[in-house]
């Protein structure tokens, strides 16, 4: 499987150039096989990219800007999705690739993948993210319950006798006033 990164080699936008460089630099640094597909110099590449970016991922004007990332024909995402996946350490899942041994992503991919060679589909990628978030939420809720219990146990509540005595004292004070 080859990752295709659609770029504009003659872009006038420095922001686009920086994003393209970040994606390409990351892939090179991590020795991930990829091809740069120039949309500025090749009308077929531009047309293919525009037709294959899903509608919900296109900007309001309908023209997706580079970099756009695909695994063969499968859309992976744009720069923002790439950046998020990189920050969350799920870049191999994002790219639809098997993570290399020794990465944090290996355990997650092995547990959730039904594809050959440990690859994770886009849908499974979402399930993994939601499962991880759910596990963190459940863990936080458990800690919160433990903290509430600890606080409740540390507060000494008056016994029934003490409560009755306090009520009687209050009633006597009311009678005297």
From TrEMBL:
Checking InterPro entries in the record gives:
Glut_rich_SH3-bd, SH3BGR, Thioredoxin-like_sf
Report the Pfam families cross-referenced here: SH3BGR
Q: Which Gene3D superfamilies match?
A: Glutaredoxin
Region named Disordered: 98-177
What keywords would UniProt list here? SH3-binding
Q: Which residues form a coiled coil?
A: none
Quote the biased-composition stretches of kind Acidic residues, using this chain's numbering: 158-177
* Basic and acidic residues bias: start-end ranges: 122-146
Q: Which GO terms describe its molecular function?
A: SH3 domain binding
Q: PANTHER family from the xrefs?
A: SH3 DOMAIN-BINDING GLUTAMIC ACID-RICH PROTEIN, SH3 DOMAIN-BINDING GLUTAMIC ACID-RICH-LIKE PROTEIN
Q: Which family does it belong to?
A: Belongs to the SH3BGR family.
Q: What is this protein called?
A: SH3 domain binding glutamate rich protein
- The scientific name of the source species is Gopherus agassizii (Agassiz's desert tortoise)
């Amino acid at each position: 499987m080859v990752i295709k990164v659609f770029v504009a080699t003659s872009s006038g936008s420095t922001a686009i150039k920086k994003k393209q460089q970040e994606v390409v630099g990351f892939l090179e640094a991590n020795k991930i096989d990829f091809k740069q597909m120039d949309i500025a110099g090749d009308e077929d590449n531009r047309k293919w990219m525009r037709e294959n970016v899903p509608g919900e991922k296109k900007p309001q004007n309908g023209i997706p800007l580079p970099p756009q990332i695909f695994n063969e024909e499968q859309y992976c995402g744009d720069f923002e999705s790439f950046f998020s996946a990189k920050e969350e350490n799920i870049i191999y899942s994002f790219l639809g690739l098997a993570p290399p041994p020794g990465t944090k992503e290996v355990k997650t991919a092995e547990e959730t993948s039904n594809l050959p060679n440990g690859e994770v589909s886009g849908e499974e990628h979402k399930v993994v993210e939601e499962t991880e978030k759910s596990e963190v939420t459940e863990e936080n809720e458990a800690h919160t319950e433990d903290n509430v219990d600890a606080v409740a146990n540390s507060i000494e509540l008056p016994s029934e006798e003490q409560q009755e005595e306090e009520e009687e004292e209050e009633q006597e004070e009311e009678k005297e006033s």
